Amino acid sequence: MKVSTRLVQKGRKARSRPGTVNLPVTRASTVTFESVADMEAVQKRFDAGEPIPTYGMMNMPLRVAFEELMVELEGGYRAATFPTGLAANAAAILACVSAGDHVLVSDSVYVPVRRFCTRTLARFGVDTTFYDPTIGAGIAGLMRPNTRLVYVESPGSHTFEVQDIPAIAKVAHERGAAVINDNAWATGIFYRAFDHGADLVVQPATKYPSGHSDVLLGAVIANEAWWPRLHQVAFDLGQTASPDDLFLAVRGMRTLDARLRRHEKSALEIATKLQAHPKVKRVLYPALESDPGHAIWKRDYLGASGLFGIELVDCPKADVDAFVDGLERFALGYSWGGFDSLIVPQNIWKGGRSVRPWTGGPLLRISIGLEDPGDLWDDLAHGLQEIGQPRRNAG
User: Fold this and answer.
1) SS3 of 153, please?
2) CB 247 within 8 A of CB 22
């Protein structure tokens, strides 16, 4: 079956009586069993090689359904649930490293992941080196005997560099290192991370999988070799999520394929118009032929999501603020992946990069939602007129 069919039909083993299309919300901290044999069978399903008590944390129907759908979405062997995307990122990293290890992390990584590496990992004796996201096979020059992990995020946060993940993964595996792939931008619909060398895939389900900006949730999907380590970390840290949030995420994933294709179509239409606008210096969107990462995107990806960046022509901050504040159909806010369109100025030049700093002009990130693209374009075109206009002195 195609992934769109699997996301609609899978994850329903635990049906209610009478049968319902969606699994009902089940809130519980204790589960009971019909017999010792039944308990042992369930425990074996969740123990990942070591007997563990099976509480409501592990085997509730909605969590099982969510993890099954995550595997259908991304591939891999098994998945673990986390209360946020950042918790998923952190747990995936912890599954791969020990004190004294060295990790390589893309310089364009999600900033909270960078902070986790430089602050928390450092406290426990794990050294991090940030690398140019466009390095490709050149990452071999940064590998050390104790390098245990290469972390990739493609396209990169804010600046949308497309990484040559197959080349990076080949080097990492030759040196005995694992590869974690943050696949938030494309999801498994548009990028098959395991096919390109990932060992663990992080999916912040807060974004496109849930799709309605009302859930905090994350997942890590592992291949068979790395599943025991991931499972141990998730269980030892007591990670799970609310059944209400899991219900919303499972419901959202039923329409993920259709939503993503609408996001892609609208984003491509608007990005194409923006790159021709005189107030826009360039658009950072791999689906555009003008983008530096287009060739790799075209080779490895099956589509593009609704998230991209724009660099404005040089202008004062007051012009950027007026542009953003004047928009009526874009909300000003962080995160993305929901039905509504968002815009937010990026301040990466103030920190967060050590290898590939941002040297361009004013940068904004745009998330195209499910509104009519014509309405969105009219709003952006009107707002861009504010750039370069004379402004009265507030004093």
Assistant:
1) strand
2) yes
What are the domain boundaries of the chain?
A: 3-253, 256-384
Question: Architecture of 3-253 per CATH?
Answer: 3-Layer(aba) Sandwich (3.40)
Query: pLDDT tens, 119-161?
Result: 999 999 999 999 999 999 999 999 999 999 999 999 998 999 9
Homologous superfamily, domain 256-384: Aspartate Aminotransferase, domain 1 (3.90.1150.10)
Contacts of 159 by beta carbon, 8 Å cutoff, 6+ apart: 108, 284, 309, 348, 356, 358, 363
Look up residue 62 and give its two tokens. Answer: 């909605």
User: What digits encode the pLDDT tens for the residues 235-252?
Assistant: 899 999 999 999 999 999
- With bands split at pLDDT 50, 70 and 90, how would you rate the model's confidence at 395? very low
Q: What is the 3-state secondary structure (H, E, C) of 172-187?
A: HHHCCCEEEEECCCCH
Q: What is the mean pLDDT of residues 82-106?
A: 98
- pLDDT for the residue numbered 25: 85
Cis, bond preceding 18 (omega within 30 deg of 0): yes
Return mean pLDDT, the chain: 92
Helix (H, G, I), strand (E, B) or coil at 46: helix
- The tokens of 245 are what? 């949030």
- Residue 193 one-letter amino acid: A
Give dist(CA 114, CA 94) in Å, integer. Answer: 14
- Type of residue at 294: H
Residue in the block written with tokens 């490709």: 136
Query: Averaged over 361-385, what is the pLDDT?
Result: 96
User: Helix, strand, or coil here: 150?
Assistant: strand
Residue 179 half-sphere exposure toward CB, CA atoms < 13 A: 26
Is the Cα dihedral 327, 328, 332, 336 positive or negative? Answer: negative
Contact 133, 161 (CB under 8 A): yes
pLDDT band at 109 (very low <50, low <70, confident <90, very high): very high
103 burial via Cβ count (<10 Å: 0-12, 13-18, 19+): buried
Q: Helix 85-94 crosses helix 227-236 at what angle (to 10 degrees)?
A: 120
